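A favour, since you know our structure tokens better than I do. Would you make up a two-line entry for one protein for me to read? Write everything out right here, beneath this request.
=====
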Amino acid sequence: MDIKRVALDAVNETIVMTVVHMDYKGQVAKRINEKMPLATVKGFRKGAVPKDLVEKQYGKAIKQEEVQKVVDLALERFVQSERLNLLGTPLAKLNENFSWDAEELVFEYEIGLVPTFEIDLDAKNNIVKYIVSADDKLIEGQVTRIQKQFGTPITQEAVEAESDITGTFSNEAEGINNTTTIALSIFKDKDTADKFIGKKVGDVVTINTKGLFEDDHQLMDYLKVGHDNVHGLEIDIDFTIEAINRAELAELNQELFDKLFGSGTVASLEELKAKIKEDAESQFAQQADQKLLGDVTEFLIENTKFDLPAEFLKKWLQTVGEKQLSPAEAEVEYARSEKGLRFQLIEGKALSQNDIKITFEDLKSFTTKNIRQQMAQFGQTNPTDEEVQGIVARVLANQDEVKRLSDQVVAEKLLELFKEKANPTTKKVTYEQFIAASYGE
């Protein structure tokens, strides 16, 4: 058999395989001999059919099966021996002039190659690493929320200025149907808040979304509207009142502090505020890291140029799913997934270019840390190593979990790499400023 690669461009090639009689005749003959005792042809007893008739009846199908086995195995070994880094899998090219009776059987396979490129993490950029602080307004608001949460709810007949109102925002046409609890202070305009005063359970208040809150992004929280839809949204929504309460605020005492953070951890209002600030800024730091990772990713995708075997991948996408796609459907799917594919290639290059490897010990350490954090959230602050490692072993026995956690370990390592190499500008902001920056405003 003769196998060769024909380069079309940097990322597209054809593998040409020429199969001759010697490559398959022995296996075909063996299969014919095995078939003879079982062959049935009218006019002959079973097992007594002449060989030429057996070959005539079954030979073509057996030849095709055996040739395909030879081709599949040779193709697999050739890809391995050539160390081809493929995108997708080889696609057989149709040849209208192909004949199984030819002396030489020529098979051609299209392949798409991973492009060769380098990434420049040191390139000039406008990436910002945010350091997010919890300001006094946020901390005071959280103290009040804690007092309400642990306070005593007092049912009210009608809405008053300080009421907490539970109900459902709805707009059938826009698919909005979200149950939440609100305070009248959330509304930007006093006239909107005044519409609720005096209302009772079962009443419906209709308000408009335009300028409803100080920040349109709050529509995402209270109405569960997607970010792409919140800006300039101007529709009427109904709020159906389901419960009205006034919270008798919990006293800020040691009993409450211990309930929140464990015995003796916090002993005063000042320490409570310090703890709120510490916990909030820890969460903000995680969010800021995710933004940094996303911003560097976007920068690299936009600034790392390489060609993809686009036409090959569109044809390949038609064949790989449970349901075959039409050319138009494959075009749409490729457009949807191209950016993700580019990032996967950039991610892999960033790891290899900087000699970063993900080991089982990395995965085990990351999982152990996650398990301890989760156990602490449920009050198990001092589990034994044996307990933790037992859970870790069960988690890592699940292949889906291993994949999910491996992706998180990769993201963590990339984040550290980007912090070191991308030289982002550091900027201190409040959480409100960070939210505005996160959504491009």
About this structure: Residues 269-303 form the longest helix (35 residues). The mean pLDDT is 90. The CA atoms of residues 304 and 348 lie 13 Å apart.
